[in-house]
Amino acid sequence: MPSIGQIFGAIFAVLFVLFAGGIIWLDSLFEESRGQWVRSVAEEVGASSVLAIFAHPDDEQSVAGLLIRARERSGATTRMITATRGEAGSPMPQVSRMEDLAIIRHAEVLKNGYALGISEQLVWEYPDGALAEEDFELYVDRLMQQMIAWQADLIVTFWPDSGYSNHPDHQTAGRAATEAVRRLRETDRENAPSAIAYILAPSRMMSRFGGETGRTVVENQPPPTHQMPGEPRAKIRGWSIHASQSDYLRQTYGIPPAILYRLYDKKHYYLVEFDD
């Protein structure tokens, strides 16, 4: 007859196997079977000037690894345009008066951009939650002007049809960035970017835990062409910098950043390169 110690040992072993299996399964939800593994997307295309185009403060969290490695591995200059100041967001937790949220989030994205090594940032004042209702032609024209001024050769943005989370502002930012590149390639190829990297959401995780929104995202984004390290530590630090949103991941997905990014440690991109 087994002793008490042997029984507890067997129980512990079973629990350990179940726990380890659960971690492996969770980790698999953030993996993709497709996409070339690269150390840096910017390095892959030989970019010297990278421009990230997003809608809200904290959107840059999705491409922290690309921005860091573009600078550190490729010596590229990184810049960013954020269309809105995030005034329509829900503070998690509330760190200021609601009427001051735009000021707070504006400051947070500038601070996180500095931490990511971004050389220059613009935060425009389009209305949060209503970017799609603004003058699209003017938005595209402003983006084209900055692409020329900054001589951007790699654009980083959201896939227009899915917007990473099916957010209309994300979709509009991705659509406008794509259109700005298309027009420059037609009218001023010498100053036009040579590649666009679209950040994609993890399809398995979104399909299983993202509900109807997640399924919509997966149905409307392409399979990744490339994957690269996501720089988890920088993302964890970034959510601390974005203090007004620091509890967003835990409240939304039930997982704090320090745990989530141990699993979600890679990022997946759809890379479009143009023939010059």
Describe this entry's structure for a reader:
There is one protein chain. Strand 3, helix 4 (101-115) and strand 4 (120-126) form a beta-alpha-beta unit. With 276 residues, the chain is of the alpha/beta class. 48% of the residues lie in helices and 17% in strands. It has one domain (31-273): LmbE-like (Rossmann fold), CATH 3.40.50.10320. It contains 12 helices and 8 strands. It has helices at residues 4-28, 41-45, 64-74, 101-115, 136-149, 163-166, 168-187, 203-209, 211-219, 232-241, 248-253, 257-263; strands at residues 36-37, 49-54, 77-84, 120-126, 154-158, 195-200, 226-229, 266-273. An 8-stranded mixed β-sheet has the order 1-7-8-6-5-2-3-4, with helices on both faces. Helix 8 packs antiparallel against helix 9 and helix 10 packs antiparallel against helix 12.
Structure summarized in a few sentences:
The chain has 276 residues and is of the alpha/beta class. It has helices spanning 4-28, 41-45, 64-74, 101-115, 136-149, 163-166, 168-187, 203-209, 211-219, 232-241, 248-253, 257-263; strands at residues 36-37, 49-54, 77-84, 120-126, 154-158, 195-200, 226-229, 266-273.
Kindly list the characteristics that best describe this protein.
single chain, 276 residues, alpha/beta, 12 helices
Topology of this protein?
Layout lengths: L3 H25 L7 E2 L3 H5 L3 E6 L9 H11 L2 E8 L16 H15 L4 E7 L9 H14 L4 E5 L4 H4 L1 H20 L7 E6 L2 H7 L1 H9 L6 E4 L2 H10 L6 H6 L3 H7 L2 E8 L3
Parallel strand pairs: 1-7, 2-3, 2-5, 3-4, 5-6
Antiparallel strand pairs: 6-8, 7-8
Helix pairs in contact: 5-7, 8-9, 10-12
